[in-house]
Amino acid sequence: MPEACATTPMGRAIRLIGDAWILLIIINLLRGPKRFNELQAFMGHISSKTLTQRLRVLEEMGFVQRRAFLEIPPRVEYHLTEKGQEFGEVIAAIEQFAQKNLSGLVEATKTGEPL
């Protein structure tokens, strides 16, 4: 991404949308609060380190809230904030666009045709 765009709101949005792990976290949390291990199981091959990093980014940006419960054993859940729910709506719109306009591209890429 051009450096001039990197610090703009649109540049930050593009980086978020372009991060598959972040998208998967948001999609999973749209279904309700999840514990760390539940998120990791849903996402398959993500390392604990990568999941922790992405969750911290989402927390810092105000998309995800971490809730610790005073229980033994300790329990922590992650859930979407209102801002995170709005981002989920953006992801849903991208999904609708993709289904409508890009579903035939899988075959095109198999034949070597440009996207």
Using the coordinates shown, work out and report the CATH topology: Arc Repressor Mutant, subunit A
Question: Any idea what the CATH superfamily is called?
Answer: Winged helix-like DNA-binding domain superfamily/Winged helix DNA-binding domain
How helical, in percent, are the residues?
55-70%
Cα(first) to Cα(last) distance is 20 Å
Mean pLDDT: 88
- Number of structurally distinct domains: 1
Topology as a string of helices (H) and strands (E): HHHHHEEHH
How many beta-strand runs?
Answer: 2
Uncertain spans:
none
Q: What gross morphology would you assign?
A: globular
- Largest beta-sheet details: 2 strands, antiparallel
SSE blueprint and pairings:
Layout: H1 3-6, H2 9-17, H3 20-29, H4 36-43, H5 48-60, E1 64-69, E2 75-80, H6 82-101, H7 105-110
Antiparallel strand pairs: 1-2
Give a description of the structure:
This protein has 7 helices and 2 strands, in the order H-H-H-H-H-E-E-H-H. It is mainly α. It has one domain (3-110): Winged helix-like DNA-binding domain superfamily/Winged helix DNA-binding domain (Arc Repressor Mutant, subunit A, Orthogonal Bundle), CATH 1.10.10.10. The protein has a two-stranded antiparallel ribbon. A hairpin with a 5-residue loop joins strand 1 (64-69) and strand 2. The longest helix has 20 residues, at 82-101.
Concise account of the structure shown:
The chain is 61% helix and 10% strand. The chain is mainly alpha-helical and 115 residues long. The chain has helices at residues 3-6, 9-17, 20-29, 36-43, 48-60, 82-101, 105-110; strands at 64-69, 75-80.
